[in-house]
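tool_call: predict_structure(chain=1)
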Amino acid sequence: MGVKTVITLADLPQSLEITSLEASMDGVMDSVYFLDDDRVLKLFENANEDTVTEELNLLAYCRMLPIAKPLGKVLHIRNKPALIYHRCQGKSLKSAEVGQIRQIGTFLQAFHTLTAARQSTNEPLFERSRLKRLIEESNVEIFDTLFKKIDLTLRNDGIIHGDLFLDNALFEGGRLSCVIDFTQACNGDFLFDLAVAGLSWCDSDEKTEALLESYGATITLEAFRPYREYATLFYSVNRYLNGGNYQELLEKLV
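tool_result:
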């Protein structure tokens, strides 16, 4: 947790008129700083300029939704691409109730309606072929065994968020105020995107049914299971390769 790249005011363009800089302790993959007003600065630690530009374009296209609102163009700070956003109000949840899960389902339905059939220039991160390569890189036998058991053909429905865990949504007064972190947005399967959300938001069949119903999905829990298994395996492998806590996810599969 916390910033990966330490910067000072001297690293920032004077034209931004920033007078204070406060590091966030909530960052996972990227470095986030709160500025002296209602702005937030994000340094992308792994994404290149093209990927950040694609996020900028996607957020502009979906600006009518409750999402992070970027201010200005891509910056370069310490040789890393960066964006400044309007600071979203609200806080992320530690756990979700059914009413909050329904709001996430409604958000994803609206987001997918906008992005259906739209093509992203980003690499499709969640395809089976890529997950297979990641598993080979991990050299962990249980990952390979589980991968071969999941019978699932993923579609290209449009652009997905791909990372809608609890910490990437803010609530204020019980209402969804902002969805953030579209860095992994790329083309993929909408039901997989829903399953990723389900990993973090739903700890019971009742909550999963609420997610599916609010999204408008007609799929049964049994038919949805392979999507949840695939999403669970993907993020287990991803966390393993990035030194994160993958065991809590893996336990859901074994």
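agent: Strands lie at 21-23, 31-35, 39-43, 69-70, 75-77, 80-86, 158-160, 169-172, 175-179, 186-188. Proceeding to next step.
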